[in-house]
Write a structure and sequence with these properties.
By secondary structure, this protein is an alpha+beta fold. The protein has two domains: about 120 residues, MutM-like, N-terminal (N-terminal domain of MutM-like DNA repair proteins); about 80 residues, Helicase, Ruva Protein, domain 3. Helices cover about 30% and strands about 15% of the residues. The chain is built from seven helices and eight strands, in the order H-E-E-E-E-E-E-E-E-H-H-H-H-H-H. Strands 1-6-7-5 form a four-stranded antiparallel beta sheet, with helices on one face. Strands 2-3-4-8 form a four-stranded antiparallel beta sheet. It is globular. The chain starts with a helix and ends in a 19-residue tail after the last helix.
Length: about 240
């Protein structure tokens, strides 16, 4: 599942290409993927993306007409920029430059989603989303307050977008490994030192993941413990369990 580092790396890499030319057409807009109907996706034609940004695990593309195209790839969706889309494309936005923004999802499940929201609708939808962990305002105290508001096991706590924005299963594994904390530990029971350790690990692992993704690293190089059951730990060489 694309998480904060993957979406942020994409936004940084493709911002210039996706804002350099007007939108020519929207040749593909699968009914199961597009979750809004008014205005329709075709209303983007003739407009221009003014920026490419991110909030949590969603890609945001504000358009010159006032609405923002929001894309959430969910567990299996993939976002890329290409010259020609394939058969698995669920949403395609073609620019006059010939570049296409493509949301695809292999298989028969249709979990990836796209919306076209007004500023008020976007604000309302994102209002429940927690703080961005790479923001300087994200401190151990902010993290502790969130733990008190929504107690639960650490792994589930980190994946809840109301608590911390942009973290999923992959980076929850990496963060807790780096912090040397059990995924089953209860968030409110952590000591002050453990909370500080966790906050540092969140910053360290997301920054590390972002840097690697910007370099084009794949999962095998980016993840040290996620999806590596039985492989030797990079710290102690004990098989990962």
């Amino acid at each position: 599942m694309p998480e904060l580092p993957e979406i942020e790396a994409f936004a940084r890499a493709q911002r210039e290409r996706l804002t350099e030319a007007p939108i020519e057409s929207v040749p593909v807009a699968h009914f199961a993927t597009v979750k809004t109907i008014d205005p329709p996706m075709r209303s983007l034609e003739g407009q221009r993306f003014t920026d490419v940004t991110r909030r949590a695990k969603r890609l945001l593309l504000p358009a010159s007409g006032g609405h923002t195209l929001v894309i959430h790839p969910m567990s299996a969706g993939r976002i890329n920029v290409a010259d020609k889309h394939g058969k698995s494309a669920l949403l395609v936005v073609r620019l006059e430059s010939g570049v296409e923004l493509v949301l695809s999802e292999p298989g028969s499940k249709r979990r990836a989603a796209a919306w076209l929201w007004s500023p008020a609708e976007l604000e309302a939808e994102l209002a429940h989303t927690g703080p961005e962990p790479l923001d300087p305002a994200f401190t151990p105290e902010v993290l502790r307050e969130a733990m008190q508001r929504r107690p639960g096991q650490l792994h589930a706590f980190l994946r809840d977008q109301r608590n911390v924005a942009g973290i999923g299963r992959g980076y929850s594994d990496e963060i807790l490994h780096e912090a040397k904390l059990s995924p089953y530990a209860l968030a409110p029971d952590l000591s002050r030192e453990e909370v500080e350790r966790l906050a540092t690990a969140i910053d360290t692992e997301l920054a590390r993941g972002l840097a690697l993704r910007e370099q084009g690293a794949k999962d095998d190089k980016t993840y040290r413990v996620h999806k590596k059951l039985g492989a030797p730990c990079d710290v102690c060489a004990t098989p990962i369990a």
